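Standup notes, structure subgroup. Blocker cleared on the adenosine-5'-diphosphate input:
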Amino acid sequence: MFTQFFGLKYNPFSKEIAPEHLFASRDLAELESRLKYLKQVRGIGLVSGEPGCGKTCALRKFTAELNPAHFRPCYFALSTVTALEFYQGLARALGEEPKHKKVSLFAQIQETILAMHNERHLVPVIVLDEIHLASNHVLEDIRLLFNFRMDSHNPFILILAGQSLIRTKLALNANNPLRQRLAVKYFMRGLEKDEIRDYCLSLLKKAGCHEEIFSPQGFEAIYATTNGLPRLINNLVTTCLILAAGEKKTVVDQEIVYQAQKELEI
Ligand SMILES: Nc1ncnc2c1ncn2[C@@H]1O[C@H](COP(=O)(O)OP(=O)(O)O)[C@@H](O)[C@H]1O
Ligand SMILES: [Mg+2]
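Run returned:
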């Protein structure tokens, strides 16, 4: 196993990364400062970016760090759902057994949010992930669902997260009302070129390896291949480590990166 070869306690580039092990990239810091503001003002926020740029991980970290005495995280990842399925999924994410009819579900969702806020003094923090899959109909419903006391009161935090396509959808006139209600927006870009080395070294270090495994040209090649997207970097670097360990090489240079790239056909 490559982990043994490089003295690693676990693969630091796996998708099961714990929130506290995430690399503190500039992107993550920028997003966190916006989420901190959203925590104060409440209402709706938007996090968009290419697949694999780190949206879900960042939101997992954000919700894990919330004080459970004040906030109640609820996560729902959309697929190509109908409006009814969306309502049902949302009700379940709020811990409710969904009612059958759409009108009853609408009332159920609003009442659950209000009860959580008014009776239990908890702010629900609802993350709707993969929001780019939502139809215009669902987007319109989201605006109606999250309208409390004639839009004068925010007993919730709603975070919409999804691929860049959501920005195109929200730019449509029909979605103006929702777009105008976004208190914060952040577009995640992934890592910048000068962060790749720190990213790899800090994750390796946390997993117990303190050696300089990569050559400077190796890092250049990793950035050129992945454009700084963490998921692509992780797949590429894991393959590099497997190849290097197989050849008993302690340094990953650009040759190994290109070999790994070919294997993955990125
Ligand atoms: N800040 C980070 N530090 C370490 N690994 C990260 C970080 N952000 C993302 N990753 C890695 O990249 C993968 C993809 O991130 P994810 O949040 O699922 O992307 P997205 O939701 O934007 O598609 C994760 O499984 C994780 O392994
Ligand atoms: Mg995601």
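Discussed briefly. The beta strands are 43-49, 71-77, 123-129, 157-162, 182-188.
Next: hand off to the docking folks.
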